[in-house]
Amino acid sequence: MFGSHLSIAGGMCNALLKAEAYGMETVQVFTKNQQQWKCSPLTGDCIRDWKSHAKRLKFRKTVSHDSYLINLAAMNPEFWRKSVELFVEELTRCSVLGIPHLVTHPGAHMGAGEEEGLRKVAAALDVVHDMVPDAGVVTCLEITAGQGSSLGYKLEHLATIIERVKAPKRLAVCLDTAHLFAAGYDFRGRKYSAFRKQIEKTIGLSRVKVIHMNDSKKDLGSRVDRHDHIGRGKIGLEGFKPFVRDSAWAGVPKILETPKEKDEKGREWDAVNLGTLRSLA
After folding, report:
1. Which of 13, 50, 247, 255 has the fewest CB atoms below 10 angstroms from its CB?
2. What are the pLDDT digits (tens) for 101-124?
């Protein structure tokens, strides 16, 4: 099940139509301008068009990514409050649109330490869950590259957050291949088996609900998040074969977040990367 993060410019349903044109089975979107705290309410037409096209295309496992402004680990009380409020909005919008997966970065502790940061994230999610009834939208905590004071660069961080919240069933995990690689996880070729066992031991295979398929411009363990096209970066094709061929991920949305420009032959990179992934099956 392959898709890409696509633009909602001109209307949210345009992302679905673009995914259809590429021959994808799913899509990831922002449900609002991710660079702004404030957002306009979703209109009836927007909701109706999105649901109509998603149903027509049989896209049952669509994905939303929350705003990068949000930091649920923020130590500043006002910033933490704003982050919680915006995340409530993000979760509510997914519920209204019928998008079942909301991906979020765990946040950054800003020097307060990882333990305090993880505590703040769990507390924020408890507040969010109290404010937003469970309507089938699962929040997927995304593994991070570990830049700066970012949390979530260890699978154990994600497991800890899930363990500490009052409603763990409302949480899942998003694996990002570029982030995993930059964080020091090597899953290329024969090393995939040991990596898979790490997932089973820490969070469990069934917790993985979304996978971001990105190559990495930076080396293993660099802790730097820079996406590259599939097979063109430091991970290489041997790092993607196991994810594509593993039956555990057959029904998991695998989303491209690679650069959007055209390749040297004038082809859309999303189409090229999609073709590359499918060739590995």
Report:
1. 247
2. 999 999 999 999 999 999 999 999
